[in-house]
From TrEMBL:
PANTHER family: SERPENTINE RECEPTOR, CLASS T (PTHR23021:SF11). This is Uncharacterized protein. Gene3D superfamilies: Rhodopsin 7-helix transmembrane proteins (1.20.1070.10). It comes from Mesorhabditis belari. Keywords: Membrane, Transmembrane, Transmembrane helix. The keyword Transcription does not apply.
Amino acid sequence: MQTYFEYASLEENPRYSCVNNTMSYEEMAARHEKHPIIGGIFIVAGIFFEICYILSLSVIWSKEFVQMSCFKLMFCLGVVDCLCIVLSNFLSGFFYIVGFEYCMAPHMSFIMGALVNGFFNTCCMLCLFLVFNRLVDVWKPQFGEMLFKGGRTWIFVFLAVAYGIFFAIIPPPCLFNADYGTVIYHPLIPGKENLEYTSIYQTVANLITGTSICLCYVLIYVIHSIRMRGVDAKSQSRVQRKILIQAVCVCFFTFTTATIWGSLIFIPPYPFMMHLGQLSWELMHGMPAIVYLFLNKTIQRQAFRKVSDCLKMFNLI
């Protein structure tokens, strides 16, 4: 976004200006293969994710839960994930359908790319703070109480938001291109294909956050395994398996998305890898809602009770 401050307008930036592009909107769209079925699936999946998140967040924000620091972080992560789903599923699905490239709508694409950077990195940092919160709660509850007690949790939320704002303003945006099926740094403007468009900030951030999240979950599992030594083998196996499944579901797609985006500075962005990255990006924001609603029994019972009460209110059951 700093290009608007540095050059006053996008058209004045020689790296992102499309003023010399003579092709019409229809001609640019005709250059790309359209994928209406895939785009439609992404949009439908986004609707499903949003519904799951709305149900989950309605429970998480209740007075019973939001008093706990982990639920404060879960709620904030859910809000940002819901915003990300608009970009990763709805807008990307539409772009799949029409065969979109940067110069078809440069201002919208540029702003969307900056928002992708901001929301994605905010989610990564909130996820890291959440798993760190779980780690200290398992390892040293007194230390966790000191860090996250009361309103101190909102300090971590503020840091995550500030971190996301930095990435929305400073590094180059991620821009959608139908040929790659996801967002990439290069706008692929005709005549500027040989220019370099990379972000060392994002590469370093992806490596740090992805590695840190996985490390925290490994430590949680190891510490919990040690604590469960006195429990009978059957109960220990069941509890450990439940923890491991939820940990993998929440952090795996954050790790794969960060890894794929981070690898772009080292290897060419092959279309298959980018399509895989797009799917991973969508699941990164949608999977926590699935975990909350279908693997967390406490949230599940409360959410389904709210749905049942709502249906009864309208005499639908």
